[in-house]
Amino acid sequence: MAGRPYTSIFLLVSLLLLLTFSDVAEGYNKLRPSECKPRCTYRCSATSHKKPCMFFCQKCCATCLCVPPGVYGNKQVCPCYNNWKTQEGRPKCP
User: Fold this and answer.
1) Closest by CA position to 50, among listed 59, 39, 65, 40
2) 8 in a domain, yes or no?
3) 77 inside domain
4) 4-50 confidence digits (pLDDT tens)
5) DSSP run (H or E) holding 91
6) Among candidates 70, 78, 83, which has minimal Cα distance to 30?
7) Number of domains in the chain
8) Where is average pLDDT lowest: 14-18, 77-81, 88-92?
């Protein structure tokens, strides 16, 4: 019985940490439409096809409210962005 208060405190602290870190992970996915252009500008900075990259990135961002970090890859961070496909089945979002 003496160990029971420590177990409750441990569970409470664990729950608070879990909630804190889940908010941090989701924070990247919750963009406002006004934040899309700067994120897409960085996302498309390494490509030689900037105009189409920016067009599709901004379209995807407006729908998904998320742009993956970096200039390439990392799409698993934004499931909507990652799963949106063209009619041919290729990725729609850069």
Assistant:
1) 40
2) yes
3) yes
4) 667 777 777 776 666 555 544 444 567 888 999 999 999 999 999 99
5) none
6) 78
7) 1
8) 14-18
Angle between helices 36-43 and 50-64 (to 10 degrees): 140
Q: Are 71 and 43 in contact (CB under 8 A)?
A: yes
Asked if the structure places residue 92 within a domain, the reply is no
pLDDT surpasses 70 at 2: no
* Nearest Cα residue to 67 out of 34, 40, 90: 40
CA 52 to mean position of chain CA atoms: 21
The two tokens of residue 41 are 């500008």
